[in-house]
């Protein structure tokens, strides 16, 4: 199956998607058919902060038309923050949309996680992953949500993580584990690999990107059907 990605939101996250998806498909013994359309992170940030779902969905729809013309069979976003308009996007989309949020609830349940701590954009944390967790309770550091969210956006735009930004994220994760009883912390922002890759923070960390990549790799290798994972509209 030919996978389409909307990338550039941000660039660092797109590179990691590309690297990990390529590796995951190779591990499954086949080759990857992939096309990436570059999006504008500044427009996404503005629309996300304004909760302008329809305008952002319309911008994504134009990119999806291009991906369809390139022969893609489905499309996915390389940003969990961008999922704030994923339902509106799916309604407009010329291709089946494979959510990066929807698979997380089942994954957490299979891992035996009862309470998950969230790190990501302000919208992801405040909405508790857009209200899509039914089997697992989600927590966030609500008193610091604006500070953490801004640190995340600054990192995503820059494409690298400063030591002070890393400490913000690591400390927030530690607080959710020690004070709020989180069994693990999910990197619910695809640029957080910049802060956590190669780091042992002293608590369990789950990268949401890896869960999404696993689904996309199974689709690419025809181990899953779109009927099983695509958003229904």
UniProtKB/TrEMBL annotation:
| Residue spans crossing the bilayer | none
Q: Which InterPro entries match?
A: Asp/Glu/hydantoin_racemase, Asp/Glu_race
Organism of provenance: Tritonibacter multivorans
**SUPFAM superfamilies in UniProt:** Aspartate/glutamate racemase (SSF53681)
Query: What keyword terms does UniProt attach to this protein?
Result: Isomerase
Q: Name one GO molecular function term.
A: amino-acid racemase activity
Name this protein carries in UniProt: Putative racemase
């Amino acid at each position: 199956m030919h996978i389409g990605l909307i990338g550039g939101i941000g660039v660092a996250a797109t590179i990691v998607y590309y690297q990990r998806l390529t590796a995951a498909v190779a591990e499954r013994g086949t080759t990857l058919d992939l096309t990436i359309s570059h999006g504008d992170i500044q427009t996404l940030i503005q629309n996300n902060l304004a909760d302008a779902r329809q305008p952002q969905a319309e911008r994504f729809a134009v990119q999806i038309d291009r991906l369809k013309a390139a022969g893609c069979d489905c499309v996915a976003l390389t940003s969990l923050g961008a999922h704030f308009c994923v339902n509106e996007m799916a309604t407009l989309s010329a291709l089946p949309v494979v959510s990066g949020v929807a698979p997380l609830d089942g994954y957490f349940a299979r891992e035996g996680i009862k309470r998950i701590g969230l790190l990501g954009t302000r919208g992801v944390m405040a909405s508790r992953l857009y209200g899509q967790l039914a089997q697992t309770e989600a927590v966030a550091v609500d008193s610091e949500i604006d500070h953490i969210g801004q640190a995340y956006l600054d990192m995503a735009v820059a494409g690298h993580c400063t030591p002070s930004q890393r400490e913000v994220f690591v400390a927030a994760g530690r607080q959710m584990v020690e004070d709020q009883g989180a069994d693990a912390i999910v990197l619910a922002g695809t640029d957080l690999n910049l802060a956590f890759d190669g780091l042992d923070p002293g608590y369990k960390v789950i990268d949401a990107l890896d869960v999404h990549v696993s689904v996309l790799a199974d689709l690419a290798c025809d181990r899953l059907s779109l009927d099983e994972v695509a958003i229904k509209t």
